[in-house]
Amino acid sequence: MKVRPQLILLACVGLLGTGCRRLPPSKPLNQLTPTEMQGRAVFQSHCAVCHSANTENSLHGPGLQALFKKPYLPSGAPANDERVTATILHGRNMMPAFGSQLDDEQLQSLLAYLHTL
Ligand code: HEC
Fold first, then answer.
1. Is pLDDT at 41 greater than 50 in this prediction?
2. List of domains in the chain
């Protein structure tokens, strides 16, 4: 996971002419670990109504494909666990807070799943 942002950056430099629109593919569903599968269930029940997991297209909120594979979140904040966790726990503008709805295990599995996108 550590080396990924640099790789993406290199890929972007290589693709400058095309505007870096080519996203790396998500991990196939049948290869998800039990934790990632649990996180997917949390995503389906709490996030999927507003966020697409497999496109960048907006529903109510931005599509989350390749969320952690790009250097920045849609807001321009750095794409890291701290910022995404804060968004989930405290909400953001029109996005509700989930701090009181998710226990730590659910939150950690959700983050693991988001890393597969
Ligand atoms: C009711 C709709 C709604 C739900 C449910 C929702 N979100 Fe969001 N989300 C939004 C909106 C709207 C934004 C854009 C906020 C902004 O930047 O103005 C957003 C933004 C985000 C961002 C980008 C933050 C940034 O800094 O750009 C992430 C990551 C995110 N949501 C993750 C999640 C996760 C994970 C869940 C499930 C726990 C979730 N959201 C549930 C509406 C929702």
1. yes
2. 33-114 (1.10.760.10)
